[in-house]
Amino acid sequence: MSERVLVEELQGRADGPVTVSGWVETVRDQKKVQFVILRDETGAVQLVNPATRPTEEPSDQDAAALALTETISGLATGTFLTVRGELKHDERVKLGGVEVKIGSLQIAAAALPETPIAADSGMDKRMDWRFLDLRQRRNNLIFRVQTTLEHAMRSYWVERDYIEIHSPKLMASPSESRAELFQLEYFGDQTAYLAQSPQHFKQMAQAAGFGKVFEIADAFRADPSFTSRHATEFTSIDAEISWIDSHEDVAAMQEELLATAIAAVKDKHGDEIRELFGIEVDVPAVPFPRIPLAQAREIVAARGYEIPRADGDLDPEGERQLSAHVKESFGHDFVFVTDYHAEIRPFYHMRDEATGLTKSYDLLYRGTEITTGAQREHRVEVLEKQAVEKGLELDGLEHYLDFFRYGVPPHGGFGMGLARVLMLLLGESSIREVTFLFRGPTRLAP
User: How far apart are CA 223 and CA 439, in angstroms?
Assistant: First the structure.
């Protein structure tokens, strides 16, 4: 490795020799002086070079200085280079109060002169050239926030003795049904399916006696939706815990997890998010509000919106209306919607013996669902009965049902979409903006 110094470190260094590397953001090629804005993964710095122009008597010219001036004049936006020069602190320099006087310049990789996207390019065009789109400081911050968010969640779990698992994404049988599943040939006449979630494997870990587990990994949905919150491949954040009394234990863990992770984002990136996204990071108070589904529907109806769904669940507009009510009434961005009917929940959700409603919840964040959580049914005879009621073939669930034939403690957990959390946290309009490389029904590249 060279003696390269990151841009963010320059302000803390004394004046003197320095080496910086990055890509060209802009060039201001004036008659007597040249300015280059160089950006790396941590920030941008101004480079300066006193221009040496050709004269009528080239023999008197400083050949090296002339060559450097001509090289700078020909730099295209996006060119990657290394500069060795003299660091100088100067409060008159708007960009960080420092600049580097160029001594030598080495081009690592030149860029084509015409950039295929601009600041006003549409989303599809930007997605086509995502590697260029991601060079923006604002987009760079998105993935720094994502890193902090994930690290804070991992730290929360690890500090509480959770085990991290990595479940397979190739499955021998559909998890619940063939709906929304990607199917592929697997060595001859075998068929494999891409996992929609690690649900069954998280539960297997409970049967294995792991107690508390988590996973942050890819999941796949063959969903032909083109909404701002759906993707065919996404990062799912999952956790499962044993020896719970109800889904309330899961909800309590998740709200504490989210409050901890968002606080970490605010502490590390709050100022920069305010600058680049124009929003404040609000750390949610714990506990989050809880509203049963039946009451939620009444609240939405009282606000003048009629939910068109026939299954009794909320639709996206209903979720927005409920969240608006919670914000107005409780000043909170989150709300747990609880007590869902069994008809609109998976067969493995436990049902309350008194009401018949499931011991489950959806978590809404700023008007959008980010999570489904529940206590799972751990009694194999009840699981089989509920699966048959859902029209499922028990033969296709044998591997899953075997987990419960040799004992498993009461347990529950949740699955949460990382991109949705990021989108809502940063006030973005689509998960495409906060996904490194988005995958949808019409996008498989780059």
Answer: 11
- Among residues 145, 233, 25, 132, the alpha carbon closest in space to that of 428 is found at 145
State whether residue 426 is helix, strand or coil.
Answer: coil
What type of residue sits at position 145? V
Q: How far apart are CA 366 and CA 326, in angstroms?
A: 9
Give the mean model confidence (pLDDT) for residues 365-371. Answer: 97
What's the pLDDT band for 176 if we cut at 50, 70, 90?
low
Distance in angstroms (rounded) separating the CA atoms of residues 148 and 426? 13
Cα atoms in the Cβ-side hemisphere of radius 13 Å centred on 215 = 23
CA distances for 262 relative to 53, 258, 349, angstroms: 54, 6, 29
- Please tell me the distance from the alpha carbon of residue 122 to that of residue 227, in angstroms, as a whole number: 16
If you search the block for the tokens 């959770």, which residue do you land on? 162
Q: With 90 as the cut, is the pLDDT of residue 119 above it? A: no
Give the integer Cα–Cα distance in Å for 427 and 85: 40
C-beta of residue 338 within 8 angstroms of C-beta of residue 292 = yes
**Per-residue pLDDT at 1 exceeds 60:** no
- The count of residues in the chain is 446
Distance of alpha carbon 62 from alpha carbon 66, whole angstroms: 6
Q: What are residue 385's phi and psi, to 5 degrees?
A: -65, -45
DSSP secondary structure of 68-83: HHHHHHTPPTT-EEEE
**Cross-strand pairs, 46:** 37, 99
pLDDT in tens, 216-254: 999 999 989 888 889 999 999 999 999 999 999 999 999
Helix residue spans in 185-246 (DSSP H): 199-207
Q: What is the pLDDT of residue 172?
A: 87
Helix (H) or strand (E) holding 37: strand 33-40
How many of the other CB atoms lie within 10 Å of CB of 191? 12
Q: For residue 334, which of 373, 381, 366 has the smallest C-alpha distance?
A: 366
**Residue 54 has what pLDDT?**
83
Nearest to 88 by CA among 33, 11, 164: 11
For 351-372, give one letter per residue: b (16+ CB within 10 A) or e. beeeeebbbbbbbbbbbbbbbb
Q: Provide mean pLDDT across the span 5-26.
A: 97
Global pTM value: 0.93
Inter-residue long-range contacts of 274-281, CB under 8 Å, 24+ positions, other chains counted: 276/137, 276/138, 276/141, 277/138, 277/141, 277/426, 277/427, 278/427, 279/426, 279/427, 281/425
Read off the tokens for 301.
């109806």
* Closest-CA residue to 266 (of 153, 149, 147, 421): 149
